[in-house]
Amino acid sequence: YPDQIVCLYGAGAAIAAILQARASGQGMHIDVSPREVTTLAIGERIAAASMSDDAPDGFPGNRDPNMALQDIFSVRDGWLWVSIPREEQCGALAEHLGCEHHLVGGDLREWLAVQNGDSAAATLRGLGLEAGRVNSGCEAAAEPEIKSGVAFAETAAGVMVKGFPFQFEKTPLVIYEESPRMGEHTEEVLRRLSDLQA
Length: 198
Prior knowledge:
By secondary structure, the chain is α+β, with helices and mostly antiparallel strands.
């Protein structure tokens, strides 16, 4: 994650430095720290943790402080995500589970543990809540939305690889060859070095 985003911020910093150099005639030193960029990406979590004594446990796992309830729960045949945006929506769930409003999270976990994922998701959506199956990596990769976007691409050999963070309309970015195998170009590199020294 840090390796990917630091490249994007680094490219932006380089462009900003070039524009500044053109305007001022002065060069610029750029220092882009992967740790700092990653910290920036999760800055709101760090800021929230600094404002509350119980913050380390305030937003664990998949929870969201802006949601009445949001988490991933184990079901009989996998995992299910559940999101309840507003506190008042918990009432319908509490009634369905036959529990007190403040006990919804724990009782939901117990109820879901013995449910089939698809039917539980349908039941929760029927109550006006948001829920769905958590895909495995293979299932996610097969989704049409994944294949139609630019985040993933296919090589000439049909292997799915990381794609691009953006795309150009007139000159699209493409994967033009397979990734090299370990040591595949060693002889070529050494030969070029030898030619340079000759």
